[in-house]
Amino acid sequence: MAQALHFLIPTSPSANRTFSKLAFSKPSLFPSFRRIPMTVVRKQISAISSDLESQTSSRILASDNGKGGGAMEAIPALQTDSSSIEVDAVTEAELKENGFRSTRRTKLVCTIGPTTCGFEQLEALAVGGMNVARINMCHGTRDWHRRVIERVRRLNEEKGYAVAIMMDTEGSEIHMGDLGGSAPSAKAEDGEIWTFSVRAFDSPLPEHTISVNYDGFAEDVKVGDELLVDGGMVRFEVIEKLGPDVKCRCTDPGLLLPRANLTFWRDGSLVRERNSMLPTISSKDWLDIDFGIAEGVDFIAISFVKSAEVINHLKSYIAARSRDSDIAVIAKIESVDSLKNLKEIIQASDGAMVARGDLGAQIPLEQVPSAQQKIVQTCRQLNKPVIVASQLLESMIEYPTPTRAEVADVSEAVRQRADALMLSGESAMGQFPEKALTVLRSVSLRIERWWREEKRHEAMELPDIASSFSDSISEEICNSAAKMANNLEVDALFVYTKTGHMASLLSRCRPDCPIFAFTTSTSVRRRLNLQWGLIPFRLNFSDDMESNLNRTFALLKARGMIRSGDLVIAVSDMLQSIQVMNVP
Ligand SMILES: Nc1ncnc2c1ncn2[C@@H]1O[C@H](COP(=O)(O)OP(=O)(O)OP(=O)(O)O)[C@@H](O)[C@H]1O
Ligand SMILES: CC(=O)C(=O)O
Ligand SMILES: [K+]
Ligand SMILES: [Mg+2]
């Protein structure tokens, strides 16, 4: 028979409080489960084919987020049982071939740029495991970004993917303009004199001239300051100021990319004069945000966040303008201020990004790894998804294989159990976007497997985060279910969740097995695609768990995605419950 625990929430909050509190004391809750032989944990579910046939409107949509290291060919979505199930072929093939254990837990974000904006290129990335497509509003026009969004949406509709879209704002930090003319980049050589100017130029710019977006630039810098492009990829020394022009000598040569960030340093510290008063969200950013809301992007990532207020402000702005207000706000941690106010910022956000590119320009490089670890841990504790970004495979912009150091860096982010890894220039304008994605995928799979083989269960202390009694119940259920899943070595956790909240609570526990997250909403499904270990499905389900489970088993079995005898723990946020059973 099935083992089930149901927790009924008292209608009056005080009614059964004492009882429920007792029932939820964590360590003693499930002591007997470990000793239950597997054969006892079994439920016979009667034949359900007729039930299935009657549910002509029910469909399952699964994403590719479990894409493992298998075949790379693009296979069109299959629809054998057309009325009842729809699933992209990548997830399906992966589960059929290798079973639950081999599914990838770490999610992958790809920045879309000139080399990946076509439909076929986007599809190749989806087949290769892209869970989220990022568009950076620093570059390109809104029309260009709109076309990318349309293609990703078409890909999802035609092939059953759930690739989410993340729009990243430009922010109002100081940066270079476009280089003008046909050249996408320019090389600054050692000792060359370049002019950084706030004047408005007609394209093409005079030789060795760079435009700067911040009007106060020429007033704020001083002769002798060090000017860092892109956090130090290229360095200059300020030698002369002539009205709006600042003459600089190149001290560290390198490539000048369009719209690269500029920081200036005096006596070894970052100078933050009036530019620190610039708003986090510029007027251009607000227009981009309106565009993102109108296009229905899934995430808006805010650059150079300084405080929690800006996140709260943006969230109310979105809530007032977006009908279902289901756009998640990601705080980019890339400034000294964002590190200072880390906890409040993450608390206010729906997720965070370790934006190491600019972060490394604002704090000494050797402090970036410990900052990364702290951001990843804080996000996990507060139950917010976290993305590790920038230069993961930088050399692959030009070369088809990564350096050993890059592979070690990717491995470390996977070992830290970050939710997602992000490609920037590697996928936006590099020569080997698909190869770079393959490296992220195979390193993730390998490290995750090593972790499981070594039985390195998480020891991280997860503080209580619930803000209501009902949320506390959900949290305790998920913590317990994840622990049971590890102890009983189950094949998968199933979670039926309307808002996605219980799915993310399970993900936060980083259990050993994958989490099948069933949700009724397409947009929740896409958003869950950013979170560690979740395989999100869209499914119409009812409040009757028995019937939900019957249908899910039937639908997944019909596609060969699960087998009789697989051991599953199911939780649900309608009827707060934990059930343990073998697939009939
Ligand atoms: N839409 C685009 N059009 C043209 N080039 C792009 C586009 N998106 C990215 N790129 C190129 O890819 C590079 C890396 O992209 P990415 O957005 O990650 O970097 P970035 O500008 O340094 O990021 P951020 O401004 O968020 O710190 C950019 O420097 C740019 O050259
Ligand atoms: C991604 C980004 O914005 C950075 O690394 O700076
Ligand atoms: K940006
Ligand atoms: Mg940045």
TrEMBL record:
Gene3D superfamilies, per database record: Phosphoenolpyruvate-binding domains (3.20.20.60), PK beta-barrel domain-like (2.40.33.10), Pyruvate kinase, C-terminal domain (3.40.1380.20)
Top EC category: transferase
EC numbers: 2.7.1.40
Subcellular location field: Plastid, Chloroplast
Keywords: ATP-binding, Chloroplast, Glycolysis, Kinase, Magnesium, Metal-binding, Nucleotide-binding, Plastid, Potassium, Pyruvate, Transferase, Transit peptide
Gene Ontology cellular component list: chloroplast stroma
InterPro entries in alphabetical order: Pyr_Knase, Pyrv/PenolPyrv_kinase-like_dom, Pyrv_kinase-like_dom_sf, Pyrv_Knase-like_insert_dom_sf, Pyrv_Knase_AS, Pyrv_Knase_brl, Pyrv_Knase_C, Pyrv_Knase_C_sf
UniProt catalytic activity: pyruvate + ATP = phosphoenolpyruvate + ADP + H(+)
Domain Pyruvate kinase C-terminal: 475-574
SUPFAM superfamilies for the chain: Phosphoenolpyruvate/pyruvate domain (SSF51621), PK beta-barrel domain-like (SSF50800), PK C-terminal domain-like (SSF52935)
Pathway assigned in UniProt: Carbohydrate degradation; glycolysis; pyruvate from D-glyceraldehyde 3-phosphate: step 5/5
GO molecular function annotations of the record: ATP binding; kinase activity; magnesium ion binding; potassium ion binding; pyruvate kinase activity
Cross-referenced Pfam families: PK, PK_C
Record domain Pyruvate kinase barrel: where: 104-436
Cofactor (UniProt): K(+); Mg(2+)
UniProt similarity note: Belongs to the pyruvate kinase family.
Name of the featured protein: Pyruvate kinase
